[in-house]
């Protein structure tokens, strides 16, 4: 009886794993804006809904919005200029730009569907409008590149695989570890793709793309000597990003 029960568990586990791979193969989506085939299991409308639903919580985590309408208008002006002069305008996403009050966390990020955030801590470090455009252009790149949707699909895939493996054997932790490593690698690729798109958006909007290099130098300085090594981080090392940005400038300036 025990052997029969084990066989059933293994068969169920194999079926779950097979279903996960079948689903992933059928989730292949061509991104017309990056010309890349991605594993995505949601629509653009769902991405927009997730972003809008998550925005209030993310805002609250960073101390709310910065209480200066002039600075917010400044961010909106730059962000909208980048969108309206690029392929971002052709996407179904609703781009909104938010200046967060957080005075300590040097960061900018984007939620799926077009919600873009920059902290006052980062804005205060930037030296000119071109650098602000570089940061916002990079985040618009994450939205257009559908990076969040891709990572959500990847997470769900590995979660399903883990469930199937756990049914057949106690291997869930190993599979979860593999999934985390793959997500880490995708994160680095996402950052580099967004840097490339950010450079393109800057050029299209009339900004100096060289200032994206200035942003990287600011981030490197902010990280200090204890900066996490590239192989332990979801973000590529700033020095490596600078080299890729230089390549992107040469390519998009032809």
UniProtKB/TrEMBL annotation:
GO terms for biological process: proteolysis involved in protein catabolic process. Pfam families: Peptidase_M48. GO terms for molecular function: metal ion binding; metalloendopeptidase activity. One of its GO terms (cellular component) is membrane. Binds 1 zinc ion per subunit. Transmembrane segments: none annotated. It comes from the Bacteria. Residues 71-248 form the Peptidase M48 domain. Keywords: Hydrolase, Metal-binding, Metalloprotease, Protease, Zinc. Belongs to the peptidase M48 family. This is Peptidase M48 domain-containing protein.
